[in-house]
TrEMBL record:
Keyword Hydrolase on entry: yes
PANTHER family: HISTONE DEACETYLASE 12 (PTHR10625:SF19), HISTONE DEACETYLASE HDAC1-RELATED (PTHR10625)
UniProt cross-references to CDD domains, sorted A to Z: HDAC_classIV
Organism: Oryzias javanicus
GO molecular-function terms, A-Z: histone deacetylase activity; hydrolase activity
Keywords from the named record: Hydrolase
Domain Histone deacetylase: 85-347
Transmembrane feature ranges: none
GO biological process: epigenetic regulation of gene expression
Domain of life: Eukaryota
Protein name per the record: Histone deacetylase domain-containing protein
Entry-linked Gene3D superfamilies: Histone deacetylase domain (3.40.800.20)
Length: 370
């Protein structure tokens, strides 16, 4: 496994050297220098944050006056769905509700994204698909594949959600850590939607950061389902590394090839799951050395999830999120989180479960003195 992974990473680097002269500095000496930077946590974080992205934030409202963890949320993350639809649309506002009610965050931490423009979306999605999707011209078969009937509301919701992930990435680059209350629609491909995912927010954010600042992005996808759309989109892109830990027998039936896939057996519990993540992430961070991590903290590996097949507990999810964020931040790398998948008829229970990542992020923010 390790040998195979090494090869993949080196292959990525070879591609980088061909397309991006900036990455040629990979001599053994530079490796050591890189390691020094990793060990020298604070200075690197300070060097990376405040770099700013070329333009203003993609936001309706930013909270530059607040020194606390940025939480990215928009009331338009939701839309109406037909009665008894399986997708738990009501969870998004409830995540924010519980974070405020439990005094994990205050209103002053809430940054509001702007809607993702068609231009921004076109860095990942085809013009043909965007035209059809935005104007309601996708066929019934295409809509069935996504799990959603088309509506103006669903288009708007997905565009705000994508804007939220882009803003979370921007805020993380400035502050070191930022969390959206939506996002993680990793099954969307350039030319079609699939599995409740219509626009690939993770891919749009990664492409935007890479295109505008030439920075390398690692996508850590711990949703129980493979991030097939994201894997496909970045298959040939050396500056974006896709890492997916998922249940092998779960959706999608036909998997794509991520840069690193860890396929898990059904029924895995906390300890085995955590040791798998712990065995790969630190080494991956040190070897690929991303400038930004996008973390899909899907809660569908939970034992009660309707669409998951693993057996994690709330505590297991908390330990997982804490580990991912602490490990990344301690290496001086900014990280933006999205909530990913989670399925239950009990919306409040589900929203509380999704809020685990924001609670863990708050702990990391305080413990790491950010
Ligand atoms: Zn999922």
């Amino acid at each position: 496994m390790t040998a195979c992974l090494l090869f993949d990473l080196r292959d990525k680097r070879r591609q980088q050297q061909q397309t991006e002269p900036i990455f040629i500095l990979l001599s053994p000496l530079t490796e050591m220098t890189g390691l020094k930077w990793v060990l020298c946590k604070k200075p690197r974080l300070k060097a990376l944050v405040h770099v700013g992205i070329c333009r203003r934030f993609h936001a309706e409202l930013v909270r530059l006056e607040s020194k606390e963890l940025p939480i990215i949320h928009h009331s338009k993350y939701v839309c109406e769905l037909p009665a008894n639809h399986r997708f738990p649309m009501g969870k998004f506002p409830r995540v924010l509700h519980f974070l405020l009610k439990d005094q994990v965050i205050t209103e002053k931490q809430v940054w509001v994204p702007e809607i993702a423009s068609k231009d921004l979306l076109s860095c990942v999605h085809t013009e043909d698909y965007l035209n059809k999707f935005i104007s309601g011209k996708t066929s019934e078969q295409e809509q069935r594949r996504t799990g959603f009937p088309w509506s103006e509301g669903i288009v708007s919701r997905c565009r705000y959600e994508t804007g939220g992930t882009v803003l979370a990435a921007e805020a993380a680059l400035q502050r070191g850590l930022a969390c959206s209350t939506a996002g993680g629609t990793h099954h969307a491909f350039p030319g079609h939607g699939s599995g409740f995912c219509l626009l690939n927010d993770l891919a749009v954010a990664a492409k935007y950061v890479n295109c505008s600042t030439k920075r390398k992005v690692l996508i850590v996808d711990l949703d129980v389902h493979q991030g097939d759309g994201t894997a496909f989109i970045f298959k040939e892109e050396p500056a974006v590394f896709t890492f997916s830990v998922h249940c092998g027998k779960n959706f999608p039936l036909r998997k794509q090839e991520s840069d690193l896939d860890i396929s898990l057996e059904d029924g895995l519990e906390d300890e085995e799951y955590l040791s798998t993540v712990e065995a790969h992430l630190p080494w991956l961070l040190q070897t690929f050395r991303p400038d930004l991590v996008l973390y899909d903290a899907g809660v569908d590996p939970h034992w009660e999830d309707e669409l998951g097949r693993l057996r994690l507990t709330d505590q297991g999810l908390y330990r997982r999120d804490l580990f991912v964020m602490k490990t990344t931040v301690n290496q001086g790398i900014p990280i933006a989180t999205v909530i990913g998948g989670g399925y239950s008829r009990d919306i409040d229970k589900l929203a509380l479960r999704h809020s685990i990542v924001h609670r863990a992020a708050t702990q990391v923010w305080r413990e790491c003195g950010m």
